């Protein structure tokens, strides 16, 4: 059986990792999310989620991050294992339901070609 967890080892955590992806990654955006992706160099890919204070209060930002992490965890077979991805949440994403937000992420993933 395949492991469906989303451990901390698969998450981007360091600022220099985020900056490198912003600088050299491919940008894809829609009204709710922006995604940067670039090939991971010689290691498994990682995912980072950014929700700044401009998005909303901490409770709202954390809810969106949880929904996105769960979507990534449940659909990890669609994400390339050799790609680093940064997902930036925009303020209009607060208006979406869990299902709509998950659909937007998967649509953006297909649009970016990072799958």
TrEMBL record:
<keyword id="KW-0819">tRNA processing</keyword>
<dbReference type="InterPro" id="IPR020539">
    <property type="entry name" value="RNase_P_CS"/>
</dbReference>
<dbReference type="Pfam" id="PF00825">
    <property type="entry name" value="Ribonuclease_P"/>
</dbReference>
<keyword id="KW-0255">Endonuclease</keyword>
<protein>
    <recommendedName>
        <fullName>Ribonuclease P protein component</fullName>
        <ecNumber>3.1.26.5</ecNumber>
    </recommendedName>
</protein>
<keyword id="KW-0378">Hydrolase</keyword>
<dbReference type="InterPro" id="IPR020568">
    <property type="entry name" value="Ribosomal_Su5_D2-typ_SF"/>
</dbReference>
<dbReference type="GO" id="GO:0030677">
    <property type="term" value="C:ribonuclease P complex"/>
</dbReference>
<dbReference type="InterPro" id="IPR000100">
    <property type="entry name" value="RNase_P"/>
</dbReference>
<comment type="subunit">
    <text>Consists of a catalytic RNA component (M1 or rnpB) and a protein subunit.</text>
</comment>
<dbReference type="GO" id="GO:0042781">
    <property type="term" value="F:3'-tRNA processing endoribonuclease activity"/>
</dbReference>
<comment type="similarity">
    <text>Belongs to the RnpA family.</text>
</comment>
<keyword id="KW-0540">Nuclease</keyword>
<dbReference type="GO" id="GO:0004526">
    <property type="term" value="F:ribonuclease P activity"/>
</dbReference>
<dbReference type="GO" id="GO:0001682">
    <property type="term" value="P:tRNA 5'-leader removal"/>
</dbReference>
<comment type="function">
    <text>RNaseP catalyzes the removal of the 5'-leader sequence from pre-tRNA to produce the mature 5'-terminus. It can also cleave other RNA substrates such as 4.5S RNA. The protein component plays an auxiliary but essential role in vivo by binding to the 5'-leader sequence and broadening the substrate specificity of the ribozyme.</text>
</comment>
<dbReference type="GO" id="GO:0000049">
    <property type="term" value="F:tRNA binding"/>
</dbReference>
<dbReference type="InterPro" id="IPR014721">
    <property type="entry name" value="Ribsml_uS5_D2-typ_fold_subgr"/>
</dbReference>
<keyword id="KW-0694">RNA-binding</keyword>
């Amino acid at each position: 059986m395949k492991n469906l967890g989303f451990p901390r080892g698969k998450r981007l955590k360091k600022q220099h990792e985020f900056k490198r992806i912003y600088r050299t990654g491919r940008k894809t955006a829609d009204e709710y999310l922006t995604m940067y992706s670039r090939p991971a160099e010689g290691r498994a890919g990682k995912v980072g989620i950014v929700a700044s204070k401009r998005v909303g209060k901490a409770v709202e930002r954390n809810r969106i991050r949880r929904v996105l992490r769960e979507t990534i965890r449940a659909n990890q077979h669609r994400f390339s294992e050799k790609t680093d991805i940064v997902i930036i949440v925009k303020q209009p994403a607060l208006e979406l339901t869990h299902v709509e937000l998950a659909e937007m992420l998967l649509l953006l993933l297909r649009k970016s070609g990072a799958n």
